[in-house]
Amino acid sequence: MTALEGIRVLDLTQVMAGPFCSMLLADMGADVVKIEPPGGEDTRRERELAPGVSASFLAVNRNKRSLRLDLEQAAGVDVLERLVSTADILVENYRPGVARRLGVGYETLAALNARLIYCSISGFGQNGPYGHRGGFDLIAQAMSGIMSATGSDGGAPVKIGVPITDLGAGLFAVVGILCALRARHRTGRGQLVDTSLFEAGVALSQWEATQYWYAGEVPRGLGTAHRLNAPYQALRASDGHFTVGAANENLWPRFATLLGLSHLITDPRFASVPNRVRHRAELERLLEEVTATRTRAHWLAACETAGIPAGPIYTVPEAHADPHAQARGMVQELPHPQLGRVNALGNPVKMSATPPRLRTAAPALGADTDAILRELGYAEADIAGLRQRQVV
C-alpha cells in the first residue's frame, strides 16, 4: 500500500519543476497521467539515448503513464475534460495565460469538477507585475537574491550548481497539493495552488533574510562558510578540502582542542559565536595552519572519534557510491523497454507503513494512450477516430 493510492494526477508539465512535483506524487502511489503534445515534451529530444528518450526526461518522469494529446484541437480538450471528471489533481507549468487560452484554465476545469485541486507552477506566479513573464531557474536564482549570496566575497555572481528554484518550486507545490487534499477532506472542494520559481528562491533564503533584517548586513558570497555560525565550512587539508561543522559552544571547544588550539577557546575574538563570525577570516587562517599539515582522511577520522560533524567533499559519482547512500536506497535501477535498465535516484522520504515506491521508468510517448481512453469509456472505434485525426 502507498500513501496516495487511488489519487489520480493529470500532469500537463514539462522540463523540471512541474515534472519533479508530479514524480514525487507518483512515487507516493498516485496514478499520474502525463499528458504530452503530439511531438512529446521537448526534453525527450535533449541528447537522446534512444528515439524519444533522453536523460533529462528519465530524470523526473518515472512512475507515470503517458497520454499523447493535442490540446490545440477541440476534441483533445474534450478528452482532457473527461479525464478531469475522474481526477483529483492537475498540475501545469504553462506560462500564465496559456492554460486559459487552451481552454484548460482553473476556472473552466473547476466548474467541471469542484473537487479538483489545480496546481500552477510558473516563473513568477499567476499575478503581480511579473506574472506574465516566463521563468527559468537561472533568472529566479538571480532575482531572488540567491546568486548575490553565492560564491566568494567580491567574486563574480555564481549560480548554485543544482537547479534549486526549479526543485524548490516543485517541492513547495507538493506541500500545497497535500495541504489542499487535507482541506478537501474537510470541505469536499478543491482549490487553486499557485507557486513559482521566484518565490521558491526567496523562501529558501532564510538565513540571508535573517542576516539582512536583524544584523543590518546585505548578504554576500562567503564560499562554504555559514552566515550566522563559525567554524562551519570547508577547511584545507594537505591533499584537498574537507567540511566541518563545529559552530556551537559544545563542538567548538572540542574542535579547537583536537587541533591543538585550545588557547583559542578563551580568546576574546573566538569566545562566542557572534565573535567567531565577526573574525571568521582570521579564525579560518589559524585553523588551516594546522589542518593543512595532515590529510583529509586523518582529520575525518579524528573528527569522527571526537564526535565532531565532518565530511568529505564528494563528486556526484562518489556520493552515489558511498555505502550510506546505497544503504538508504538513494541509487536504484528501473527496467526500461528501450534501454534495458536505467539509473534513478531514490526517494528521500522513508515511511514505515506506506513507503514510496519506484515502479517504472519514464514512459514512452503515448505508451498508455489507448489504455487511458478505454478507462474513460471510449470505444475502439472512437479511439481509432481520434488517432486518425491525430488528436491522440
CATH architecture of the largest domain: 3-Layer(aba) Sandwich
Task: Tell me what portion of residues adopts beta-strand conformation.
Answer: 15-25%
**DSSP helix fraction:** 25-40%
- Roughly how many Å is the radius of gyration? 25 Å
Strand order of the largest sheet: 5-2-1-6-7-8
Q: What is the top-level CATH class of the largest domain?
A: Alpha Beta
- From the 3D structure, determine the CATH topology of the largest domain: Rossmann fold
Number of helices: 17
DSSP E strands, number: 13
The SSE order reads: EHEEEHEHEHHEHHEHHEEHHHHEHHEEHH
Mean pLDDT: 95
Alpha-beta classification: alpha/beta
Total individual domains? 2
Q: Low-confidence spans: pLDDT under 50, at least 5 residues?
A: none
User: What overall geometry do the principal axes of the alpha carbons give?
Assistant: elongated
CATH superfamily descriptor of the largest domain? Crotonobetainyl-coa:carnitine coa-transferase, domain 1
Largest sheet: 6 strands, parallel
Give the terminus-to-terminus CA distance.
32 Å
